[in-house]
Specification:
Layout (H helix, E strand, L loop, with lengths): L1 H10 L6 H15 L2 H17 L15 E5 L5 H11 L4 E5 L6 H4 L1 H12 L1
Parallel strand pairs: 1-2
Length: 120
């Protein structure tokens, strides 16, 4: 339940989709995922963040493009958003207002349009 509450706040920062996310997460945690699934996911995330850190020079010779989609109300906060932008200085940045941590869920049609435009 504690994880569900945190995720609902993350996925529905304005509260407009809270009922949907509450039902979705209740179903997800009660019938689709086990405690072992969640523990494994957290361990994977911890291991990744502990061992791997991109630096701007890692992509110096990479010819690709980067798109950062962020929200001014993301739970990671303004400092970490700035660090991400500094890590990828040539990235295109699109910032949503009040879209929480997951604009692909909170503003899906706008998000898909931006990603589609970027990829084409």
């Amino acid at each position: 339940m504690l994880l569900s509450k945190a995720l609902i706040t993350t996925l529905s920062p304005t509260g407009t989709a809270e009922a949907f996310w509450r039902e979705y997460l209740t179903d997800l945690f009660s019938s689709r995922l086990t405690r072992a699934d969640l523990v494994t996911n957290f361990r994977n995330q911890y291991d990744y963040h502990r061992r791997f850190h991109f630096r701007p020079e890692d992509l110096r010779n990479w010819p690709g493009r980067i798109l950062i989609v962020e929200s001014d109300t993301d739970i990671i906060g303004p400092h970490r958003r700035q660090v991400l932008r500094q890590t990828y200085p040539s990235a295109q940045v699109r910032t949503y207002h009040n879209a929480g941590h997951a604009p692909m869920f909170t503003r899906s049609s706008e998000y898909l349009a931006i990603v589609t435009q970027f990829l084409t």
